[in-house]
Design goal:
The protein is an alpha+beta fold. It has helices spanning 17-38, 44-48, 55-59, 96-101, 103-115, 127-143; strands at residues 63-75, 81-92, 150-158.
Length: 159
């Protein structure tokens, strides 16, 4: 009885070609999912959120704009130039009549402030933002915080 002890055979190495197809499919699907969300086709956050109107869509309901009469003042100093300013007040429907009724008071507050600004301040950088902030605070002083949402300067030039 001569039997040769057979050496244990090692199993053949597994082929990794079977993993290639599922891995490629997963990468393609992940890329398509990323591309579709990046392009705005769908959003995971929108799927989880309840259906309610967007806040930015509701923010513009009832917004009214009231024009302030153009203000022209002579800037004191050696150069003979004048400032022309036009602005618009952003309010809502409920306060529009109050804003229109008190417009002479708003114009007076604006003219008083602008005539008190130093002539050299107009040449400085960022003067428009300072003027806009001051005019907004003065309009809120006249009308109250609830009536005025914002102040928009539509014209600011020197003549």
């Amino acid at each position: 009885m001569t039997t040769a002890l057979a050496a244990p055979t090692e199993p053949a190495p597994k082929s990794k070609k079977g993993l290639l197809v599922p891995l490629a499919a997963a990468l393609v699907l992940a890329g398509l999912g990323f591309a579709s969300t990046f392009l705005g086709v769908w959003s995971p956050a929108r799927l989880l959120a309840a259906d309610k109107p967007a806040p930015e869509a509701m923010a513009h309901v009832g917004v009214e704009f009231v024009d302030i009469p153009t203000i022209e003042i002579i800037i004191p100093g050696g150069r003979s130039r004048s400032l022309v300013l036009s602005a618009t007040v952003e309010t809502d429907i409920a306060h529009r009549t109050d804003v229109e009724h008190l417009m002479p008071r708003i114009s007076d507050a604006f003219t008083t402030f602008l005539s008190g600004v130093d002539a050299q301040a107009y040449d400085k950088r960022g003067v428009l933002e300072v003027i806009r902030t001051e005019l907004l605070s003065r309009s809120r002083l006249v009308l109250g915080d609830d009536a005025i949402k914002d102040l928009l300067i539509t014209e600011f030039r020197f003549k």
